[in-house]
Amino acid sequence: MSYTNKQLEQWDKEYVWHPFTQMKSYIQNNPLIIEKGKGSYLFDIEGKAYLDGYASLWVNVHGHSDPELNSALHEQIEKIAHSTLLGSANVPSILLAKKLAEITPGNLSKVFYSDTGSASVEIALKIAYQYWQNIDSQKYKHKKKFISLDEAYHGDTIGAVSVGGMDLFHRIFQPLLFERIAIPSPYTYRMNEIGNEEEVKQYCLKRLEELLQTESEHIAGLIIEPLVQGAAGMITQPHGFLKEVERLCRAYDVLLICDEVAVGFGRTGTLFACEQEQVVPDIMCMAKGITGGYMPLAATITSDKVYNAFLGNPEEHKTFYHGHTYTGNQLACSIAIKNIELIEQRELVKDIQIKAKAFSQYLSKLYELPIVGDIRQRGLMVGIEIVKNRKSKETFSVHEPIVNQIIMIARSKGLIIRELGPVITMMPVLAMKQEELQQMVDIVYQSIEEAISHYTSVQ
Ligand SMILES: *Cc1c(COP(=O)(O)O)cnc(C)c1O
User: Which is it for the CA torsion 274, 275, 276, 277, positive or negative?
Assistant: First the structure.
């Protein structure tokens, strides 16, 4: 099929419905069409290079077109691309499950595969609910609700949306959702009335404990994004918060589900975020970084305790009736194995810790700019909250889309980043070099400066 760049642009607007995108505005602009990637860079169809400052939506680990990952994929495809896990097994899915059991914290050891983060969450929720039913459906018949945090994001399928707390995305679907109970999120920057970080932490934990005291017999599980609530705008949790959440879940017989979809595979400076607080969830969800950004794959891993509740004779109906057609796909699993091997061989986690320190120094320079209200960082996961007024923390109105302008200016300067509401997010490719991280920050600095010059209202 032959085509011109112009035709590609036209067909993109004519045939492709983009995710999370108001297509009416989208078709009025020139689309960014990516053709190639190499290392930390993406290249569009005109050959223009961009630093991949969003890791191609938080997935890329070793850089684009990594020779070793490429050959792992070639090697596997010469054998087979796909066969099913329903009633049969395959080699890469076995080896990967064993590897995941080894690298995840504590006694997490039973891997259920799927293909998107949302599916990994759906699976976790269904497992958590059925777990209590399988143990004692009389005693636990009321255990059917879930707790999650304000502003939580766990994906876009209906179950994942049900435990989500992002009003903007989820409001319209309210009538379709099952019930969740929200607890406050420790969003220190915007909880002045509560106090400092420690006081915010105590306040949120107290609310959780009060809830558990009265409601725990109705609650199957609590789901949380450990350390950082990503899609909410990189809300970083106070130290010790997650550990206390774990303690409360244990004390009140509620399963703890850690959604490591965004934070897993090194992003926050440890392989998994919950390691930083020695937390071992009952169920853990993984996706984004699992294949290094190569293939759609997700996994839900559980402890033996959870898994064992599903064992029984067929007539006991303890089976977990769930599965997706591409569950355990060989191409995806083989690339995930290689991704993890390379993380180990290249000592990437240690490298991330070193780079995160340097990154933090570069980032602090952004406070020179009057509209930078808050910089939040864990590892190579960063949110910069933009405010109109530093004192009042007032944000710009929808009629003053300065954050989007910053993003677009940065793009023209060769950096792709994204915004989440008033927050500029920086999620570099994990293998990005220190100079490239510095360059990212420089471009963001210049872009903010340039955007400010268009606004007279900045105080
Ligand atoms: C991205 C994300 C999901 C959803 O993953 P998809 O692959 O987009 O379905 C779930 N949870 C968290 C924390 C995420 O960041």
Answer: positive
